[in-house]
Amino acid sequence: MSARQHRAPCGQHAQRGFTLVEVLVALAIVAIALMAGLQATSALTHNAARQTDVVLAHLCAENELVRERLSRQMPSIGEARVTCEQAGRNYQVAVIVTPTPNPQFRRVDAQVFDDAQLPVLRVSTIVGRF
C-alpha cells in the first residue's frame, strides 16, 4: 500500500480538507489585510489631492506677490481678495498688507482658500519703497 492509499484504522474516518473554523479564520485574515490595503490606498489618494491643492495654491499666492512687487508702488495697508483659477479649480486669495517697524517696507501676506473657504496656504514677503 502506498502512502496515498493509507487507510484509517477500523471505525475511524480519515480527515481531509479544512474545517469550517480554519476557513473562517483564513477569511478573517484576508479581510483584515484587504482593509489595511484599502486604508493605505485611501491615504495615498488623499495626500496626492492635498499636494495638488498646495501646488496650485502656491502658484496663486506667488502670482499675487509678484504682482505687488512689479507694481513699483508701495502697497496700501489693508486687505483685498482676488479670484485665481488654476487647472480648472477656483481659489480665493486674500492679499493682506500690514506695516512694519520700518516705514520703508510693508509686509504682504497672500493667503489662499479653496472653494469651501478653508485655508490651503499662506505665503509672505516684504515689499520696499522703490
What does this 3D model show about the protein?
The termini are far apart. A 4-stranded antiparallel β-sheet has the order 1-2-3-4, covered by helices on one side. The protein has 130 residues and is an alpha+beta fold. The protein is built from 1 helix and 4 strands, in the order H-E-E-E-E.
The helix/strand class is: alpha+beta
Oligomer: single chain
Strand line-up of the largest beta sheet: 1-2-3-4
Order of helices and strands: HEEEE
Q: Residue-averaged pLDDT, rounded?
A: 89
Percentage beta strand: 25-35%
Radius of gyration: 32 Å
Helical segment count: 1
Largest sheet, if any?
A: 4 strands, antiparallel
Poorly predicted segments: none
DSSP strand count: 4
